[in-house]
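Margin note from the TA: students keep mixing up input and output lines. Inputs are the sequences; the output is the structure of the whole complex. Example:
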Amino acid sequence: MKKYIILIVLALAIAFNGCTDLEEVPYGFYTDENFYQNPEEAEIALLYAYSAFTFNEYHRGYFDLASLSTDVMDNKPGELQNGRTELDGWTVSSNTEAFRNFFKQSYIGINRANAVIDNLEEIEFDPVEKDQILGEALFLKSWHNFILVRLFGEIPLRTKMVTEEIDVQTELSSIEDIYAAIISDLELAEGKMTINRRHGRADKVAAQGLLSKVYLTLASSKATGVPRYEWVSSADDMYASAAEWAGKVINDQSEYGFDMSGNIRNIFNPNMDDGPEHIFFEANDVSDPVQNPDMNDLFLAYAYYNPYNFLETDGTMTHNVTTGWEIYRTNPDFFATFDPQDKRAIELYTDKIYDDDTVEIASFTNWIICKKYVDPSPDAENWGRNGSKILFMRYSDIALVYAEAMGSSPEGYTQVNAIRNRSGLPDLTPGLSDEVFREAVFDERAWELNFEGHRLFELRRTRKVVEKLGDVDYAYFYPLPQSEIDLNPNITGDEEKKGLR
Amino acid sequence: MKNRFNQLKRIFLFLFTFMFSIIHAQDVQISGKVLDQNGNPVPGVNIVEKGTVNGTISDINGNFTISTADAYGTLTISYVGYLKQELPLEGKTNVTITLVEDFQDLGEVVVIGYGTVKKSDITGAVSVVKTEEIADQSASKIGDMLQGRVAGLQINKTSDDPNSGSSVRIRGASSLTGSNSPLVVIDGFPFSNDLGGLKQINPENIASIEVLKDASASAIYGSQGANGVILITTKTGKEGVSQIYVKNQTTFGTFASEFDVWRDPALMATISNERNRNGNGKELYVGDYELGIYYPSIEELESGMWPLEKDGPAIYSYTDWTKEVFRDYNITENITIGANGGDENTKYNLSFNYWDEQGNVKQHDYERFNVFATVEQKVKENISLKFNTHINITDTKNATGTSYGRNPIFPVYIENNPLLGYYRTGEADNDNPVMRRDLILSKSRTLDLISSGLFSWEIIPGLTLNSTFSYKYGTSVSDNYTPDVLTESYEGVGSIGNYLDYNLSSENFLTYRKQFGEHNFSIMGGWTFERYTQRTSGMTGRDFFSDALQNEALDLSATDNRLIYNGLVSTGLESVYGRLNYSLKDKYLLTFTARADGSTKFGDNYKWGFFPSGAVSWKAHQEDFIADLGIFNELKPRISYGFTGNQGVSPYQTKARYGERLIWDGAEWRSVIGPGYIGSGGRFTTWWGIPSRDLRWESTSQLNFGLDLGFIDNRLKVNVDYYFKHTTDLLRRKILPPSSSYDFMMVNDGIINNRGIEIMVDYVAVNTGDFMFAPTITFSKNRNSVIDIGTAADAGLIEDNFGNEYIIANNNMEWVFGSNIVSVYALGQPMLSFYGFRTDGIIQTVEEGLEAGLSGAAAQPGEIKYVDLNGDGVVDLDGDTEDREIIGNPEPDFIGSLNLNFKYKKFDFSAFLYGVYGNDVLDTQKFGRTSEQAQRWTPDVPSDEFPSLRNNRGWPVVSDFYIVDGSYLRLQNVSLGYTTSIKKLNIASLRVYVNIYNLATITKFAGYDPEVGVDGIYWGGKPRQRTATIGVNFTF
């Protein structure tokens, strides 16, 4: 009998053991085990890194942290989302919602760029294409690091992709080390890439432009004595480097240039994103089948869910503008600084909306609508789906970087005057001192690049935060998000940032 | 198992009888008949001459003959489920025996996991559902029938709609993110479905339901046992009986309470105008157009007739949308036809069920076809095979037009004329329920197949091998189409959704039973594997040039507006388990169980979990010194302790999962892939994807003290259980630092306790042959308490001014209250406690409002007076978290039921009462009801209960204003039946009955019905149903 039992047990053990194993096999999704196998996947992974820009956390933070917080933009009264009231009124703390959201979304971009960089080596393909992809990944990483270091100061420098729980915690790096990493990554990226204009992608010119901005930030911060930039060796050297890199953009290529088509709104028309100004912008299209970033809604007037029209300066109408949430409002005092003849003020801002019969629906008295993110041809059928996108870097920005870096010089005047003339303004007073010239460029940047995510950084790198915004806490660096402080034992809350003026 | 013992016994007896007939000359030939209390013959009854081994079995007509040595001897008559009788012959040669049902049969066998045990030998907490008590109910799903039937089993059913489920909890909930539903095992097949939604089994085919509650009972299911186990055994045929049965039920349903809608349009308009006026808004009902719709003035409404156009004819009148949306009454037909029977070698049960249910919403229909077949074949003396198959097909037409709250001044059709089309307030008005019902297609069809084969081999006496292979295959296809006219952004949207799951398991176990003198052993050991796979796919087409084909031709939709998706989830489990039962002198009982589970879902470092348990019990009534007291027929204390797991973990979390997104590359949208995928919930995106390599089961240890008592010849039985469940390694989200680029990962960290007491009382108060009265009482009380759910940093624990520490439990409340802080997990409190402000009536003067710390509009008369809990003189309703605290919880103080069973001759009557006491309900509809709005605060009639009407008050503020007592006592089922047999027509049994469900509910709750989901939140909906079922059962 015993042998029967043994036989049965054996038979069943053989029959059923090995039928299953406890290994979990993924289905319908990729993991680190089955991805990064070929050149196409490398590009897909790179585009995934770009797609980090297309989230509300990034969009909104991009405007909330650098524009809403400053003198150029006001918040819709009572609008609390993303900590906007705190940012507008400078009552921010480490718990301000936008800090965590934007901080995290930037690191998502960095992590995805690192994922490309870490895995590219293993994939075999055309070295030129491979270099381009590596260059773009390095560019994206530097882009985020550069914004983060200017927002928060000392941040964790992520040099490798986060793959396991053990990778989660890392130490803060010094501002000096972060800039060193940005510069070395960007210089490497610049060398790897070619001039290659593609929708929503960075190329060699974008890397040059970003490098010039990095050096200009160091130069002006050192020159004006911005706290925590004491380590910068020499302002003049930095200005020279900024001029060198911006000069490559201005003088050494012909793909990008000033948009002289005569209508300033063309620069911002999402349907004309192949214009000469477009060095680097967010990828988006009106036919978005997944989600509408609703970016223009934040700027537009609310009209009881009915589309309305803008009356343009040439007498034409921009039809079917989606009703918006009117959260981002142009500050009237800032708007008053425009020259009344300035085409930028006339063509890009309005305070009136109209119905189809050119009858005024509403006129706003204490704020002005900025039309930079208004898609003139939204998909009215589909909830006003629109193609508006953030212009991250455009030619005029780098031209002004070049001008500021060069100082009062013929090259500098050429760039500033080109922009002024395009806007219907006369040349800048000739023969200004470097200091006064740079002051003029500072003002020009505000008029030209308003609402494009630069203002806070301009104020910080020229040590003008207190002058323009008052005696505010966290003037030069925002506090790190509280969850970063809480969850990373290597980080303590840096209250001293509060005291920086 | 039991059946086979009986067979062996019978064969044994037969052989003995035969031998005796040879050896001894028989003196007296006795013939007789065995009947049950209804006069029906009972086959298979053992008749033995007392003091001998001479015996026989009654035949199919209940007849028997036996030769006895002594004409004045005694016959012993025994049959499972009936009282053992002794019949002195007193010289008679022809006897008739009427069996008396034994309601407290200690010989009863109870199914436990992987085997059976004599009920009297149970050491753990196992409850048996008396299926005959629930047989008259009209229910397509088992879960609906069990409410209140077992202490410790809490069932919440919130909807009477076809296809709606109920939530089932055994001894409280112990998981925040995993499942809290018990494991359901059907004929040994662990089922992926939870009991609340189990539609595949026709309740008519269920022979017994056992509920395993403590660790001793449920640990044999290891990592699936932490929420308790419900074992369902289906009916097989009986030896010697061949019968055809027909069961027919017709159920009529109506609403048990009135709809809360505006019956008086003038009052509605008055209230609306007052609300707008108080909020400085524009009054609507002034006899003018607003956004293209003509709103009559109050005067016009009071006249009962009003124009649609300003100067049009006065032809419109009030539309009662409830009449348009709902059926006056709804009918459910349920018919089962089957046959069962068998002989010594073959037993079978075949049944067919057709269920045709009307929902209470017009057009909402549900049909089900169910086929059940089981065949048990004895192949050799010691080998038997059994096959079970359930085939279940459902067809559902979904309700698509349900908004009965639509403004009653709107007509159904333009000018009340169907020829002119449906009335809409504008192009975007897609709310007309009649239009929706007529135009929207929404239906689904499911097919489920459950099949199992069991091989049972008694290798040597006492040693049995059982081997089961079970397979479930389920599919569903859903069809949806919304035509152009009802789709805002597209010209028609059509979709087809496909769902498929299959589940297979193989169970193999050996059981060895042996008795050595006073020692009785039963050892079981086995191994199993399970594989579960779920596949989904779907396609959506948008923008059709015509509605004619609906979703039949999705390829005719606009090419750039198609969506497709597909997915697969696959999990596997491998296990080894064993159990030892030992009893000494039939007094001291001991049980050990253990199971080791390996799951695909667990992390690399924790693939296998081990779940042991042990129990001891003492049949004290077997001791002479107890028996001598003459009080106890049963006195049996039990203690058990053990470990179970909850593997209700989502699969693939141990993987570094990548995400997808679309990005425009200048020419096309491209799918792109990389690290990080988007989780659900909340306004902002949450990112997951860091692998949880240490992920594992939630571990529950449970201590149980039980006492089984029997008095008065076991007519009064009392079972008391006290338990303490301690769940650790709670699965929860861990917050990651944002620089990691991830928001969360799952970790095992946290503690929840449940402790409680359960009492069941069965009392056969009267049991003469003709009359029986047997009440049953259940009582259960559970205390749930969150002990540890992580820290502020890694779990987001918030500490308030009053020492409460909590995390937000529900991220979807923002659209109701403007805040997600509504339901919370708070330390030391039951799960899903409510958090908010305290209120103190209604502000009557501005001074009173200001004094209370309120300001602005919130301090005006007619506003709710919120309490300044921290005493700082300020109550800020917007951002203020200073003045909020725990304001209630949905856990009942206790749940109880009382079942009164009466039988008089051929009549039976039962009344079943079910009550829940002491739970709080968050009534989101409070002050939304028409009757309450009429009681609003006004300067002339200042209420202290309800605030004023004001349209610009903003989000409702979460406060104890909305917390109400959810206690109720329901007369849930009343049943009256008559059972007889009609010999002329060859009807062995005929039963006619009426069963009324939800006859009456006593409650203070103001909404439609106080029975809400486990989160305690009441959403309004519609009234519950009251149903009357008329049933006829025939057995031929």
